[in-house]
Amino acid sequence: MNKLMATIPLAGAVTFTLFALMSFLVKGHDEALIDDPNPVIVEVARLPDEIPAAKRPRVKLEPPKPPERPQQVPETIDSQSEPTDFTYQPPGLTIEKQAINPSFHGNGDREATPVVRVNPKYPAPAQRDGTEGWVKLIFDINEMGGVENVRVLDASPKRVFDKAARSALRKWKYQPKKVDGKMIKQHDLTVQLDFKMQQ
């Protein structure tokens, strides 16, 4: 207890000394700021007042002119100059000639004539396995020359090439059959697509 009583005056003396030292340091710093012989001067520039909206000059803006489009010449299919016998066989695919043979008559009548043929894609699994085959399809040609109602009549092997053959045939385009100057729909036409690996 005596030691505790002896340390209290010592702690008070240390505390007083610390406060006196802090007061001296703070006071010296304030005097250094006040007595600085080279003070830093900051100038603030003032911008001129903005022109009121009523006095501003009005500028009329016109919308930009749209760019001129080049004139497009419509493409026409000349049935006289187009070959009517499609003998080209893409590699890996053989297309059997259809039961539709284009024929033209003097009164303007004509049978459906193929204009666009899209080759089917060889299915990757069949190509990997070296599988060959064929698909016989039946379909209709509408008044606009589009292929619709595509069905599989027969195939070998079954269900290997069916999807690829149907998908390609749906993209084919024809000049539709014309009777008495009127386009008519044709039903139940057939075609066989043969899938053969490249030699």
From TrEMBL:
InterPro entries for this protein: TonB-dependent_transducer (IPR051045), TonB/TolA_C (IPR006260), TonB_C (IPR037682)
Gene3D superfamilies per UniProt: TonB
Pfam short name (any one): TonB_C
Location of the protein in the cell: Cell inner membrane
Domain TonB C-terminal: 107-199
Location of region: Disordered: 54-91
Biased composition (Polar residues): 77-87
Gene Ontology cellular-component terms listed: plasma membrane
Membrane topology: Single-pass membrane protein
Family stated for the protein in its record: Belongs to the TonB family.
Protein name from the UniProt record: Protein TonB
Organism of this sequence: Thalassotalea agarivorans
